[in-house]
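Human:
Class, as today's exercise, you are to examine the entry below, and be ready to discuss the fold:
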Amino acid sequence: MLDRWTMPLTHRPLKCIARPLQQVGITPDQVTLTAFLIGISALPLLAYEQYGLALLVIVLNRLGDGVDGVLARLSGRTSDAGGFLDIGLDFVFYAAVVLGFALANPAQNALAAALLLFAFIGTGTSFLAFAIATKQQAIERPHFPNKAFYYLEGLTEGTETVMTLVVFCLFPAYFASLATLFSIACLITTAIRLWGGYWTLRRPEKP
C-alpha cells in the first residue's frame, strides 16, 4: 500500500550506496547473497532473544535488498535470474524472522507465528502466480517499473512488512498480538490480489 510513495524516496540514497559498489566491480547477485546471509542470522539471534542485534541485521538485509536492484540498473545487469534470486531469498528471510520469534518463546508465540506463516503463503503465492501469468501475457508494470516482476498491490507490501518486522523487534513481548493483526492484513491482501489478479488476467492490457 505504501510502496508507491516510499520507493521514490529511497531511490536516491540507495543510488549513493550502489555507485561505489559498481565502481569496485561488486555484482548485484553478490549484494543479494550477502544481504541474505546477514539477514538469515536474525533467526538464531531472535531464538536467543537478542532483539537489538536482530533488528540491526534485519535493517541491513532490507538495505541490501534495495541496493541490489539499484546496482543492477546502474550496471546494466538486470535479469530474470537476479530477480528470481532476490524474491526467493526475500521470502525465506521473512519466514526465518517469524520462526525466530516462535523459537524465542514457543508457548506464547508459536500459534501466532504459524498463523503469520500461513498468511505469508497466501501473499507470496498470489504474488508469484500473478507474476508468472503476467509474464506470459506481457502485461506491463504500471506503478513499479523497476520491479523484476509485475507488482500487484495490496494492503501489505514491502514497506508494511519491514515496518512490522521492526516493531516485532522493538516490542517482542507483544509479538503474538502484533503478528495476529498483521496476519489478518496479509490475508486481506491475499484476497485483494486474487480478486484483482483474476480480473486483470481476464482483461489483459494491450501491448
Summary: Confidence is low (pLDDT under 50) at residues 142-151. Helices lie at 3-23, 28-40, 42-47, 51-74, 80-104, 106-137, 158-170, 175-202.
